[in-house]
Amino acid sequence: MKTATLASIALAISISAANAQTIGVSMSGLDKFRTALLNGVVSHGQTISGLKLVTENANGDKELQKQQVQKLIADKVDAIILAVSDGDLGPQMTKMAADAGIPLVYINNVPSNLMDLPDNQVVVASNEKESGTLETKQVCALLKGKGRVVVLMGEPFHAAARARTQDISDVIATPDCKGLQIVERQAAYWSSDYADQQMQEWLSAGVKFDAVIANNDEMALGAIRAMKKAGMPMKDVVVAGVDATDDALAAMVAGDLDVTILQSADGQGAAAVDAAVKLIRKEKVPRENNVPFELVTPENIATYLPKSQ
User: Where in the cell (predicted)?
Assistant: First the structure.
């Protein structure tokens, strides 16, 4: 009986070891949203028995991120989740993973080679056509279709920054919003500090505007900080961002931020882990997996406070 029990324990351990999976996670950096994104990956990964996560942070360094992915491949992880620092790195990252036969899930930032991904590589993100479009349509409505707008863009090479900025132009080109005019547009690299500095420059130069449309909340908050330091009443300007972070929702409750768009870090993180696990099992996963954006305003913010990053 004792021998049988020991045998069954050994068999259980053997099965557990056989089912153990390791997913490597490489983040391009850890700003407010990407930290929430990583937390979404980790928290969902912890709910899956036998799954181990190994995480890396490239701190915005493209070369470092390539080295980190090479190390994950050398360590023979079962799959990689990659928040790529530059969408144009996609072809290199794809080849590295494909040559090693390791499934790859791009998260949040869409690679430039999206249409050429092999069957075991997919993207989990949100449709950026929704984000900038929802954001700008709401600004247009608040301004009743007329006004001067300044735009704060993310990193110029980032697919989301390019898409969200194009969304702004597309909405302004529509009949209902053609009275809006973009008077300034500059990159602030997703950073509140850069946005603060850029806004100070605009104010010092005497730029007149009725709204600030930022590609993310961090930049919107940086712009708000600069305007408040300059004594500009927040009731006189419409400010919009994307991500619905805790800080952004707090600013909205305080009456400083007028519009944000929920990009679900938890949703993207969970979907990326699920996709990686399916690819490890050689199951079919769609090339594009979209997590919807949602408009957040002072009128419906109570619904989103518990869901914020």
Answer: Cell envelope
Task: Give the full edge-to-edge strand order of the sheet including 179-187.
Answer: 179-187, 146-153, 211-214, 238-240
| Tens-digit pLDDT profile for residues 111-153 | 999 999 999 999 999 998 899 999 999 999 999 999 999 999 9
Per-residue exposure over 259-269, b if at least 16 CB sit within 10 Å of its own CB, e if not: bbbbbbbbbbb
Among all chains, which residue has been given the structure tokens 């996609």? 90
Q: In this predicted model, what pLDDT tens digit does every residue of 12-23 receive, in sequence order?
A: 333 333 458 999
pLDDT digits (tens, 9 = 90+) for 70-111: 999 999 999 999 999 888 999 999 999 999 999 999 999 899
φ and ψ at residue 241, rounded to 5 degrees: -140, -175
154 Cβ neighbours under 8 A, 6+ residues apart: 160, 161, 164, 187, 188, 189, 190, 215, 216, 219
* Per-residue model confidence (pLDDT) at position 128: 86
State pTM to two decimals: 0.72
**Nearest by Cα to 103 from 91, 120, 83:** 120
The whole-angstrom separation of Cα 307 and Cα 309 is 7
Q: Is 185 helix (H, G, I), strand (E, B) or coil?
A: strand
Spatial separation of the C-alpha atoms in residues 273 and 174, rounded to whole Å: 39
Residue with tokens 């937390």: 39
Its sign, for the CA torsion 106, 109, 113, 114, is positive
Query: How many CB atoms within 10 Å of residue 74?
Result: 9
> How many other CB atoms are found less than 10 A from the CB of residue 89?
22
